[in-house]
Write the structure tokens for this entry.
Amino acid sequence: MSDGAEGPVMLLDSASLWFRAFYGVPASLTADDGTPVNAIRGFCDMVARLVRARQPSAVVACLDRDWRPAFRVRALPSYKAHRVDTSSGIDPSDPTVGGGPDAEAAPAELGVQVPVILDVLAAAGIPTAGAEGFEADDVIGTLASGEATAAVEVVSGDRDLLQLVRDEPTPVRIVYIARGVSKYEVYGPEEVAAKYGVPVGRAGDGYAEMAMLRGDPSDGLPGVPGVGEKTASQVVSKFDSWAELITAVVDGGDSRLSAAVRTKLVKAAPYLTVAPDVVLVAKDAPIDWTGSTRSLPHEPADPDALAALAERWNLTGSVDRLTAALAGRDA
């Protein structure tokens, strides 16, 4: 993905950024016709700030082609079911649907801005990457794990992506922006291990396994009733793999599991069987790209189009800051 220049490859969890921009930047920012542009301006400013702070060799905006993939819904019908917009006519219990691109209820004021963000990225020369039937997490997992020849930094406010951290063969770090871009935290194996109590030697896998046991109501992931984060991390730390843990659940004589915890895990056996299909990010998603280069665009790919977008949507300041950051110039 990189031309060999120094600096990490920066993979953006794009929706994570533009949702945060939408809710973090005043809605009073509009184009001349009254169309809101707060998410566009906030997104551009976030990317500019990240580029200046992290000095990447490349930036890729990763996209959801399906926010609720069919393969995850088949495994666990409750996956993101509570987020489905019932006015769309989509039945969240239908595993063949998996939620379409318009199924998740999102503010209309944000929806009108996303196409403009994509136009700005194209004109600026920042490539996008997606995969039909997969979430942005899967695109990020595939690029970070399968194609990376340089260090990778993943920018997201989603804890699920902490499962990707590693040191070898190339480092993968998560630039975690849940508290805002100005207060981002960088997570590698040591930081994940320290925060979540999983073994540092397999911090990424350990985090994913802990998340399976703990569950996540925001994603419709039930977890194991009665097993919270602390217990989950303690259980994970006693085993070298998920398969070894599941074998111990079946084997009533494995002393690494207390009777009480084992009873809870046995009751949750049907869920534990499908949890990896839902929680683990794919690392073989069929990536489709836009853009002609994978290295950092020091000049806009289409300066005229970018200027027109800036004028049409009242984005001049934000676009100037973005292009200056990409070029390594002062804003």
